[in-house]
Amino acid sequence: MRSAITRLQQHAHIENVSRIYLTRPVSDLPQPPYLNAACKLKTALDSLSLLTWLEEIERSLGKKRKAKNAPRTIDIDILFHGDRTLSLNRLQIPHSAWSQRAFVLLPLYDLTSEIAVGKTRHPLAPLIDQLPPDQLQGVEPISEKLF
Predict the structure, then answer these.
(1) Around Cβ 93, how many Cβ atoms within 10 Å?
(2) How many structural domains does the chain have?
(3) Which of 20, 26, 88, 136 yields a CA-CA distance of 20 to 30 A from 105?
(4) Which domain CATH number covers 45?
């Protein structure tokens, strides 16, 4: 994760990074727990250029294309890009399941108490409170903030 953050700084200004969370995989495929974090950054890159840059970082850190939900060395997603919305085959902003995943909401909450999507503001605490208890089980911070 530190290597990814260092590489991000080549095209972005890192404003804040959450704690690292140990989380259970969402997939039914047998695999070890994941590490998740969120990063707030500023960049002049448009959404697709940012995606291309993130995919390059993933490849440089050893990610190989595998079946959906298969274990992977790293996965960097664009959750939001300002208050923009975008729906393409290759990229959806905001990320499609951002508001229903503990491993997304808890790191985000380390960075902000609400998210703006278009003209709508979403407080994060109520979204976290509405998560099914089984999603919150096994999601625990294992570090202080990285940045």
Answers:
(1) 22
(2) 1
(3) 88
(4) 3.30.70.560
